[in-house]
């Protein structure tokens, strides 16, 4: 990691959702740096170069599924404890089972990405670490 400032990483490929997430997150944590990745490949690069404190991860991305990516993170000692909130348009029972096995902190629909939820997630999982 080249940067030691703790930041939030949002992995989301849809521009409209990125704008909404930026707006909500910035209202709650205007001083916490916010990074975006549009794909899993870009997320891997950000994780290698930035000090990420929490990830909000879409499930359906151009180069794979977020739920598979969290299993990858759980298998890597560097990222095993990194808090991940999976954010999906259509959470499925299969996704819940895979996410639980990979120690995902929560699964939200996109409509759950609101001020109070974001504030609680960051305070509980990122600021306490």
UniProtKB/TrEMBL annotation:
Keywords: Kinase, Phosphoprotein, Transferase. Gene3D superfamilies: 3.40.50.2300. The modification 4-aspartylphosphate is found at residue 58. One of its GO terms (biological process) is phosphorelay signal transduction system. SMART domains: REC (SM00448). It comes from the Bacteria. Residues 7-125 form the Response regulatory domain. One of its GO terms (molecular function) is kinase activity. InterPro entries: Bact_response_regulator, CheY-like_superfamily, Sig_transdc_resp-reg_receiver. This is Histidine kinase.
């Amino acid at each position: 990691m080249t940067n030691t400032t703790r930041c939030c990483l949002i992995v989301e490929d849809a521009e409209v959702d990125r704008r909404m997430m930026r707006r909500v997150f910035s209202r709650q944590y205007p001083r916490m740096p916010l990074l975006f990745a549009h794909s899993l490949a870009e997320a891997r690069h950000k994780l290698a170069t930035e000090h990420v404190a929490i990830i909000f991860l879409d499930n359906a991305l151009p180069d794979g599924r977020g739920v598979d990516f969290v299993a990858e993170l759980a298998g890597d000692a560097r990222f095993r404890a990194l808090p991940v909130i999976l954010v999906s348009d259509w959470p499925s029972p299969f996704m819940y089972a895979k996410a639980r096995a990979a120690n995902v902190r929560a699964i939200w629909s996109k409509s759950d990405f609101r001020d109070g939820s974001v504030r609680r997630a960051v305070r509980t999982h990122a600021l306490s670490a």
